[in-house]
Structure formats: C-alpha cells, structure tokens
Structures
1.
Amino acid sequence: MSLPTFLRAVRRLGPLMLCAALAACGGGVSVGLGYTDVDDDHDDKPHGPGPGQPPAETGVFLIAGGLCPQCGGSQDGSGSNARFDGPEGIVAAPDGNLYVAETNSATIRKVSPQGVAVTLAGSTGAIGSQDGAGSSARFNTPTRLEVDAGGNLYVTDTGNSTIRQVSAAGAVTTLAGAAGQCGSLDGNAGAARFCSPQGITLDRQGNLYVADTLNHTIRRIDRANNVTTIAGVAGACGSNDGRGNAARFCEPQDIEVDEDGWLYVADTANSTIREISPSGEVRTLAGAPGQCGSADGAVAAARFCRSAGLTIDGAGNLFVADTGNGTVRRIGTNGSVGTVIGVAGSQNNVLGPLPGGLNAPRGIAVLGAGTLVATTQHLVLKLVPR
C-alpha cells in the first residue's frame, strides 16, 4: 500500500531536487475502543476476481441507485430500485457488504454484493444525535466511514461535530466530541471537541485519524481514547508544509493511511494532496495550492480541483475522487498522475465503457483487485480502470 521507493527517495532529496528527480523518472465514550484495522486496502476482498479468474471488464457499472434526474431520496431496494440521498463515504467491510454514509438522509446504509440496499442505522430525514440501535439512532450529516476487522464502523457525524461508532449489529454510540459543540480541544475523547470533521481512517495500531475540516487540522484518537492534534492549527486556513503546528491545511475532507503509517490528506480547499510522515512532517505530494485544474503528469505538475476522497490499493496506488473535475485520478507507483475514470469538466454519470462519467464523486474505496467503488449523485458505482 505504501508509496514506492521512488517517492521515498524524492522525499529524502528535498524540494530543490524534486523536479529533477521526477524528470529523470518520467515523475458518550466507550473505554478502550479496541478497534483493529481490517486492512481494507489489500486485494483480498470477496468482491474481487478469485484465483485464476480473468480481470474484470473495465468501465463504470451500477451497483445501486437510480440513474435519472428524479431518482433522489432514500429508499431501500435492489439495484436501480434503491434510492440514495447524498451518499458520500463508502467502505468495503469484512462481511462482504458495502457501507455508505448517506449525508442528506442522516443514515448509514448497507449494500450487499448483489446490490440490495438497506438502512442499517438512523431514520431517513430524522436529524439528531441520539445513540441507540438501528432506526432509533440519530445522525446529522454523516460524511465518512471507516471499518475495522470486527465489522465496527467509525463515522464522522459532521453536522454534530462528533465521531460515532456503529457496531456490526447496528448499535450506535458516540466515541468523541459533543453534539452541537464545534471546538478544537484535545484531551480525553469525551472532553475533546471537533468542528465539522469529515475524513476518517484507521491504522494498524488501532489509532483513528480524523480530517477535522472546519478546524483545518488533522487529529488522532489513540487506543486510550486520547485526542491529539498532530498537524495544523485550529482556525488557521493555509497551505504551508512543515512539521506539526507549522503546517497548514484548508478544509481537508478526507484522509487515508498506508501500511507504513504515512497519512494522505485530500486538502480540499487547497486542491492539493498532502502527506504526513510518521514523524509528523507535512508536505504537498501533488497539486498546487489555489490552482484548480485537471493536468495529468508528474506529481509536481499535476493539478486537482477540490478533491474530496482518497483510497489506496494493494499495489500502492493512491486513487483520488477529484470532485470538482468529476473524475477519478491515480497517483501511481511511478510518481505520475493520470485520469482513470471520467472526463474533466463533464459532471455527468455515464455508465459503460471507459472513460465513463461521474457527477461530483466524493466517496471512494477499494473493492477488489483492480476494482473500486465510488459514490456520486444518487448512485453507488463500481469502477474498473485500466
């Protein structure tokens, strides 16, 4: 999952050598959360082709949701009979199902491998912050999801400024923050405060990392339930590289961790992809602050536009839901950026052969070997790039 030796070497060369190196290569709180990384970025998902099977046909394919202007709303059902209302975060879980944070309906949905969508937790349109089981629980604009080996989900409940846990059976509890209290306080998870957090990821040691969007910071919730700000400064929107509180972000909306503990951040308002080393050093991996564009090529020359989703596959490729461009981009192991799904500037869902089309993709996850899933307007889609 980690970026290749090439990019590690570029880090050691430093910024003055970056362009030359790229040119040479062609570029309520539970006590003791006890979560364990499901390692969902590896190529061992039940959805992927099995040993000896041919690779999946490339293209964009419907899993669930209605492909029409009137096909919004939230409704359980199978395939094109299901309805989604603002689906965002998506994960592939150990039980073989997909789980989706449905922002506008304030629910968490489950989608089977056969495309059958049901509501796991929350009640459609019932906004609140109540803990409880299944439909008795309440959320407020849930945005992103992570899953552990036990099938527990971790949800950024953005409108409540809290981090929630949903058990495999659908029981919801509040892990960190306090509903309706936007703040930036570190400390024990019950006393800590967040402000409209969005991205969330889980490392191999059981630490949760949160892109605390309106604080412009990256936070960590460790296994002892302590919350720490590891990069950025609350309330300070910027784009500076540096260590810890010398770094700046601007409305980061997603975060992903690799097997070596490197964090990758969709720094959405900057239109850049950032990385944070295990020692806390922040640098801009791809894109340029304030330059919304769609240029492919070496990471130093590439441009993104308000990217909002990230995932890493088992080969070490970083995939980006490039929301403002309506595309999926790949930052490959050769240090280059390419558009693999969609056409920049064309915000339309187009099923079928590549390049296909996507309408403001936001959630993205690895489904199996060579296969991704993504959320777009009203839809859950399977993506098979070349």
2.
Amino acid sequence: MSGFVEKPEPVEVPGLVHLHTGKVRDLYRDGDGRLVMVASDRMSAHDWVLSSEIPDKGRILTQLSLWWFDRLTDLVPHHVLSTELPPGAPADWEGRTLVCRSLDMLPVECVARGYLTGSGLREYEQTRTVCGLALPEGLSDGSELPSPIFTPATKADVGDHDENVSYEEVARRTGAETAAELRQITLAVYDRARGVARDRGIVLADTKFEFGRAEDGELILADEVLTPDSSRFWPADQWQPGRAQPSFDKQFIRDWLDASGWDRHGELPPPPLPEDIVEQTRARYVEAYERLTLTRWT
C-alpha cells in the first residue's frame, strides 16, 4: 500500500483547469493551452507522499531547474516558456511556478548512472547487471562505474513504484530511433552536469530526466532537471565506496524512515517527520542549491 498520507485539495484559480496532483507538482492548463506547473513543498519517499512538508523545497526545485535549463540549451531545448504568475494565482506560487509548452510526453524515465547505488545496486547484487547491462565483478555501494550507463525505468503513477526496464523495452515502447535519441541525450546531459557538479565538490551519482515531443516532433527536456528530488548528490570529499554515502538529497529521509521502525511494506502510512529531520532536510536542499549555483539561497 502507498500513495498520499493526506492528499491535498487543488487550488482553484480562475482561468486555469486543474489536470493532476502529483507527488510534488500540481499541473494546470491555461486558456492558451499551456501547462502551468507548480512545485509544492511536499516530500515523497518509498512511494508515499508524506504528511510533513519541507519549507522552501518547491522553490528550490524550481529555481535550480531553471539554472540547469539555462546551461543545457545547447544540448537539448527545454519546455519552460515563462515564470510569470497567471492572473489570480496565489502569492505563494511565486518562485515555484513554471508556464510550459504542452508536450506529448514519452512513457519512460530516462536515468543516467555514473555510480552504483539504489535500485541499480540491488539488481547488480543479484545478477551483476543493471537494466540488462553487464557490469564488472567487485563493485559495491557507491562504486564509480567504468563509464556512465543509460538505465531507463517505467513512469509510475502516484503510489506505484518505477520499474527498471531494458533498453530493448524502451525501443519497443517508443521506437528504435527515439530510444537511441533518448539514450544519447540522457548521457550527454549527465556528462555535462557531472562535470559542473564535480567542479563544485559534488558527485552526481545518478539522475533522471523526462522528455516529450513538440508538435513538430522535436525532443524537449521537461519536468524538473538535476534537482535533489531527481538526482543523487554526494559530497565529493566524503565519497567512499563500500557504504551508503552522505547525500544532499532525500536519501536522508529514506534512511530516517528505515530506522524509525515503520514497516515500508505494511499497510500503515509513514509517520510524520520530526522537526529536526525537516530542518536538516531543508538544509541539505539549500546546500545543494548554493554549492551548484554558487549563489546564496534567500
């Protein structure tokens, strides 16, 4: 069992049609057919949307995504049209709202991994492969891979778990040409971002992207990009293979839940986060933003 601990009611704004409430974002459509994407402070972990929110999280995700989009446009166009608030939108939407192109979204999470951890590690321990790709013997939690790999996953609904799939499955779902394009762009963006992060003392262990097609068929980078929600960021000076790594992402909350006594496979929802865990999580998101952008969060 999983899903929302407490599903929020969507905010009603004149001129906007509510489309979807996701784990973190609320989607609307405006009168011109554009998508309005609002990032909340909600936190998800282990396929649950928790009752506790992380202050400023939605703004951090939005502003960091914008920072990365600006640095990736020579590799792939993005979906953002504007950051202006729609008329009548609540003041709280400021800094967390993107007006975006409406795209035909591709049914796959495009994951790039440069290091072995998470679901990739679990698969490797059983089969010495990740998404059907053979890896060398002797790797452990946090090991750097010989070269980055494309390890796609299915896109899950709220409450369901993304499932790793093979490249061949992506080709079956999207066509061989699109699958090849997704792999090439995913690895190119990861390579660019990994270099930027490395220069700032951060290991970009893995990350996921979403893409859609514009009306003219052009492949567009969508959703969020290279945030602590969609990526694993580790402090480079503490990287040590063979153990779980300190992180600037929500792995901190996953670890707390795992140690809390809550049964993630049971029927009860996860407990509220203690105030100190909320504060420490916010501090990690802020530090990731400040380290990457070299600017202070205000």
3.
Amino acid sequence: MTEAAEASRCTPGTPCWVSLMVHGLGSTEDFYADLFGWEYVPGPEQLGRYVRAVLDGHEVAGIGELPPDAHLATAWTTYLATDDADATAESVRACGGTVAVGPLDAGAAGRVAICSDPLGAVFGLWQAQTRLGTRPHGPGAPVWHELVTQEASTVGKFYEHVFGHEAQAHVTASDDFDHLTLNLADRPVAAVHGVGRSLPHDRGPHWLTHFEVEDTDAAALRVRELGGRVVDPPREGLRGRQATVADPEGAVFALVRSRR
C-alpha cells in the first residue's frame, strides 16, 4: 500500500474496514491471533457475538459469529467508506447492484449496509459515526483490496458511478491481462482484476483482502499448520510476493509482503 493510498483511506469510496462472519468464533480468533498476532476487544452488541481485532493498539478487522442455523459460506467482506449510507445504497440500486442488508445503525460504529455489485461481488458500506483516523499498517494489517471478477471494465464503471472512482487500466505487454486500478484524487485505493473463465466456481466474483506479512512463504506454511489451506502458492505479484490462502472455515484472503 502506498502512502498516498493510506492518506486517502477515510475518504468516501475508500476501503475502510474488513469483517468476517464465521460459525466458530473462538477457533477463528485463535487462528488469526497465531497467524497475525491479533488481540481482541468486544464489538457492538447490536451485531451479536462480535469482536474487533486489535494490532499494536489499532483496530484492524471485525469477526462475528453466525447464528447456529445459518448455513452460509464464510468470506471476508470489504467495506467502502461513505458519508451517507442511505444515499449510496440508493445509488447502488440505481446502477444495477443489490442492497441485501440495511442500511442500519451499528451503535457507535455508525451506519452500515451489505451490498453486491451487478456481477454479484459482495461489499459493505460504512458511514462512520466519527471520522476514521489513520489506518494501521504493517504485518497483520489489511493493506490492499482487489475485486476479482469476470471482466474489469464493465463492473469498474459501476464503482466509478457509485463511489466516484477513476478507473485506470494497468498497461502490460500482454493484452490478456485485464486489470484496473481504482483511484480517488489520483491516489490508488483498490483494484479490479478480470479473470474471465478462471474465476473460481465456488466463489464467483469477490473482493479479496490482502494482509501484510513479513515473509509470504513462511506465513503460507503457517496457514497450513493451523488448519487452513493454500489456494494459490506464493508468487511475485504487482504489489510484492503474495499468496492466496483460506482459513479453516474456508474464508479466502491474500498474504502479501509489500515492497517498501
């Protein structure tokens, strides 16, 4: 993550939070505590059993427990900042997306909604009660967010219209590489990667959260030792050495050793 992106992290349209709903809260807490060094504090009571992960005194993510009768797959959700969750939700609908939950109040945290874009990728809206401060960075913190979808340009227009992003194509020597960077005020805040038929059938279009680690290969190995799995092994990517992994309940996320 660049310093420019970090500085814009609280502006509307910028990824500002990540959360995970799971079936076993305690075992999931243990997994991420071992992998990333997270500690936990209680979250908003309105959300049921929910904790906030803390790293070096900064809140970095939320983890909640699903009701016992919920037969849902677990997945990390990226939240995009907004100054008006209700107005943004209406814009989501008007541009062909879906609002599945909310907007609703989440206590002192503010107002939230769960939406999906026209191709089905789920994301959240967060209207913070107070302006967010500087987001944490370093090992164990989310440092980048990428939408993995069938085709980048069409869905990129949705995010441009709803959030004011400026989509910039990533120029490479290959015409087969379908990749957009989403900018705000000329600062990169997220990306869209079109993978066509390579899109995983078990997940469909999805936002992928990248967590920074000191050593991608060692972290991927630790994921296996803790009962998770490696989806895509460590490799060199646009933002450093990265790997795609899943926790023991199947929630997929990325590990990246950022270039500094």
